[in-house]
C-alpha cells in the first residue's frame, strides 16, 4: 500500500492566458470572447450572475476602447512579467506549471496560412523559462479564450471547419515545442459548454430552433478534435502525454430516498461522466441515447468520427475540483448557494467560502476514488483552490490562514486517496498568483499564494507580494506533502 505522495509527484499551479497575460492588442493578437466580457459588479458576491452574450453586445464591446470594465484585456501583465512571476513560482519549488496558449495570438485571423511568429517566440520563451527552473510546462491548448474571428467567420464549434483549424493550431505548437513540452490538455473543463456555450464553444444563442442541440453538436466536434489532436501529438512525439479535463461537479443525494439517489446518478452522468466516458473510454455512453431522444437532439457525425474517438483516448484524466453539491428530486424547500458556473443546492453539513462555494475536502477523496475506479487512468488535479478577500497589510504581508487551512485539508484528502490506491500523478492549484476571475472578471476574488496589487478596475502598482500561504506551500513541496503543518 502506498502511504505517501510518489517521489516524482508533480507539485505546481495553474493560470490561463486570458486571465493573466493582458496585452490583448499587442504583437498581432486578435480579440477573444474574454476581451468583451465585462466586469460584473455585484452587491452580494455570493450570488454570481453569468454574463449573457449577444452579437449586438459583442459589437458594442469591441468598439469600446476603454478597458476599465473589461479586466481580462489587461490581466495582471503576465505577458511582460512572466520571468519574474515564474521565478517566484520556482522559489516555492514548483515542478510543474500549467498555463495556456492563446489561440488568437498564434492564428489571429483564425484561418491564417502561417502562424504568428511573435506569438510562437513568446510562448517558447515562457516554456524555456519554466525549463530553466526545472519546471515541467503543462500547456492547455484551449482555455476559455475563443477567438472572436472563429465565432464571426464560422459560427464557433457548431461548424466542423473548426476541427481542421484546431488541428492546424495543434500541429503548429506540437511541432514547435517538441522535446520541450510533454504534458498537454486539449480543452479546459470541456463539460462547462452546456452552461457557458459562447464562452467555451463560441456558439451564440441566436437563430437556433434547438440551442441545446447546437451546443451538443459543438461538443461532439470538440470530442473529434481532441481525439485527432491526441493522435497527432503521439505521432509528432511519442513522449507526449495528452489529458482530457472536466470541472468535476461532485454530487450527493440529499436523502436516502430512492428518487434522490436516481437524481444524483442523473446529475453525475450529465455533468461529469458523459464527457469523461467519451474521452477516456472512447465511446458515447448508452445512457445518452435516451437523453438525446427525449430532447430532440440529433448530432451530425461523419464517417470515422466514432472510430477516431475510440482509438485515441486521453493518456490521463485531468479535472478541477472546488466544491460539491447535493441532488434532490424535489428541491422546492431547499436553500440555494453560489457555485462554479451555476447556483446549487446547499449542503447543511458544509461550510462555504466568502463567495458561497461549499468547502468539501472529503469530496475530493470521494471524487478521486470514483473517477479512478471508473476509468483506471492516471489522475491529475489540474485546478483546486479557494477565492478569498485578501488584505495587504502596511508591512507588505498578507495573512491568509483560511487559504492554508483549505489546502491543508484537501492535501490530507489527496493522501488518503493515494492510500486507497488512486494513481494520482500531479496537482496544479488554481491559481498561484492572483489573476482576473473567470466567471465575474473581478480581481477581488483572489486564489493566489502571491498577491498582485491591483483592484477590480486596474488601479494599483501591480507589485507582487508573498502571502503567508506562499511559505506554507513551499514547505509542503519541499517535504513532498509530508509536512502540512502551520505556516513556517
TrEMBL record:
Record key words, sorted: Glycosidase, Hydrolase
PROSITE patterns (UniProt xref): GLYCOSYL_HYDROL_F1_1 (PS00572), PROKAR_LIPOPROTEIN (PS51257)
Active site residues according to the UniProt entry: 383
Coiled coil regions, renumbered to chain: none
Pfam families linked: Glyco_hydro_1
Keyword Hydrolase tagged: yes
Family: Belongs to the glycosyl hydrolase 1 family.
Name of this protein: Family 1 glycosylhydrolase
Amino acid at each position: 500500500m502506498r502511504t505517501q505522495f510518489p517521489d516524482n509527484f508533480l507539485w505546481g499551479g495553474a493560470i490561463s492566458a486570458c486571465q493573466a497575460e493582458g496585452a490583448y492588442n499587442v504583437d498581432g493578437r486578435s480579440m477573444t470572447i474574454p476581451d468583451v466580457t465585462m466586469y460584473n459588479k455585484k452587491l452580494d458576491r455570493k450570488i454570481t450572475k453569468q454574463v449573457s452574450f449577444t452579437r449586438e453586445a459583442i459589437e458594442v464591446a469591441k468598439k469600446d476602447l476603454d478597458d476599465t470594465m473589461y479586466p481580462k484585456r489587461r490581466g495582471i501583465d503576465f505577458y511582460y512579467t512572466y520571468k519574474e512571476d515564474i521565478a517566484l513560482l520556482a522559489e516555492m519549488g514548483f515542478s510543474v506549471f500549467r498555463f495556456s496558449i492563446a489561440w488568437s495570438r498564434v492564428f489571429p485571423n483564425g484561418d491564417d496560412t502561417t502562424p504568428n511568429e511573435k506569438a510562437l517566440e513568446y510562448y517558447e520563451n515562457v516554456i524555456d523559462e519554466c525549463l530553466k527552473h526545472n519546471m515541467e510546462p503543462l500547456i492547455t491548448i484551449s482555455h476559455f479564450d475563443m477567438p472572436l474571428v472563429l465565432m464571426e467567420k464560422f459560427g464557433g464549434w457548431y461548424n466542423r471547419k473548426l476541427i481542421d483549424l484546431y488541428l492546424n493550431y495543434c500541429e503548429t505548437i506540437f511541432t514547435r515545442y517538441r522535446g520541450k513540452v510533454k504534458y498537454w490538455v486539449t480543452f479546459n473543463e470541456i463539460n462547462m459548454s452546456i452552461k457557458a456555450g459562447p464562452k467555451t464553444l463560441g456558439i451564440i444563442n441566436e437563430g437556433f430552433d434547438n440551442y441545446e442541440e447546437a451546443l451538443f453538436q459543438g461538443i461532439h466536434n470538440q470530442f473529434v478534435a481532441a481525439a485527432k489532436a491526441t493522435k497527432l501529438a503521439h505521432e509528432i512525439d511519442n513522449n507526449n502525454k495528452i489529458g482530457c479535463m472536466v470541472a468535476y461537479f461532485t454530487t450527493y443525494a440529499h436523502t436516502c430516498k430512492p428518487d434522490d439517489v436516481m437524481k444524483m446518478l442523473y446529475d453525475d452522468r450529465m455533468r461529469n461522466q458523459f464527457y469523461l466516458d467519451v474521452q477516456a473510454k472512447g465511446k458515447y455512453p448508452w445512457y445518452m441515447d435516451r437523453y438525446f431522444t427525449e430532447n430532440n437532439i440529433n448530432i451530425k457525425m461523419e464517417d470515422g468520427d466514432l472510430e477516431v474517438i475510440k482509438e485515441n483516448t486521453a493518456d490521463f484524466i485531468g479535472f478541477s475540483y472546488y466544491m460539491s453539491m447535493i441532488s434532490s428530486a424535489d428541491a422546492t424547500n431547499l436553500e440555494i448557494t453560489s457555485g462554479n458556473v451555476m447556483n446549487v443546492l446547499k449542503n447543511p453539513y458544509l461550510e462555504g467560502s466568502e463567495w458561497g462555494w461549499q468547502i468539501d475536502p472529503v469530496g475530493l477523496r470521494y471524487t478521486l476514488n470514483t473517477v479512478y475506479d471508473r476509468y483506471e487512468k492516471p489522475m491529475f488535479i489540474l485546478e483546486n483552490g479557494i477565492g478569498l478577500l485578501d488584505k495587504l497589510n502596511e508591512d507588505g504581508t498578507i495573512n491568509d490562514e483560511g487559504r492554508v487551512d483549505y489546502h491543508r485539508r484537501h492535501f490530507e484528502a489527496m493522501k488518503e486517496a493515494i492510500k486507497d490506491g488512486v494513481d494520482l500523478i500531479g496537482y496544479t492549484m488554481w491559481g498561484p498568483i492572483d489573476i482576473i476571475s473567470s466567471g465575474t472578471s473581478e480581481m477581488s476574488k483572489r486564489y493566489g499564494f502571491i498577491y498582485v496589487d491591483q483592484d477590480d478596475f486596474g488601479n494599483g502598482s501591480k507589485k507582487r507580494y508573498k502571502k503567508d500561504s506562499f511559505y506554507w506551500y513551499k514547505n509542503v513541496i519541499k517535504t513532498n506533502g509530508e509536512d502540512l503543518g502551520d505556516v513556517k
